Amino acid sequence: MVTVLVVLLAIIIFLIIAVALYIFSTQRQLVNLDELCRNAFSQISVQLNSRWDALMALAQTATQYAQHESQTLIKTIEARKQTTVNTPQEYQEDQTAFASVFGRLMAIAEAYPQLQAAGLYKETMDGIRQYEENVRMSRMVYNDTATKMNRMVRQWPSSFVANMLGFGQKEYLKEDEEKKHNYPDLFPNQQGA
Question: Cα separation of 7 and 69, whole Å?
Fold first, then answer.
């Protein structure tokens, strides 16, 4: 009888240790994925800030041609650069603001063909295109990391641990299709590609 109790006690202790190790391991994985999501979002924020810097250079280039309108855009860009993007909603707001300012700069460029022909204008547009591509890539990395986090938060038994420790699903970054059609064409020379 004593041996049965010892075996039962050993099994119970083993199960407690196994559950504790599982919870510990799952918590570490959840923290790792959460930090990867934060890092990916931080990378998006860095790319968005660089994109605003390039847009500022474009606005300053346009100042020679349309002084008043460019100064207004420069003030808008300076205000936007001060904001940080930490959530998908803030990301969408930044995208909308960027599209608005970029569209207004493109209207200035269309009104002044000599501006479009300027070397600095072309270089700046290439920089904006590159930063836009970097934002797209960073968004993909964030969404991939969020997918891994969401799987772990939703799958059993890790969902139990995630819920117990307060980890939740991450929201994906999406492009609003209607807004996308209103964005200015960043790649006008690549139509049909």
Answer: 82
Burial class from Cβ neighbours inside 10 Å (0-12, 13-18, 19+) for residue 2 reads exposed
Residue of higher predicted confidence among 12 and 125: 12
- Per-residue pLDDT, 151: 93
Find the helix or strand (DSSP H, E) in which 134 lies.
Answer: helix 119-154
Pick from 118, 122, 108, 96: nearest CA to 72: 108
Predicted local distance difference test score (pLDDT) of residue 144: 93
Give the separation between CA 52 and CA 101, rounded to whole angstroms.
10
Task: State the Cα torsion 150-151-153-158 to the nearest 10°.
Answer: -160
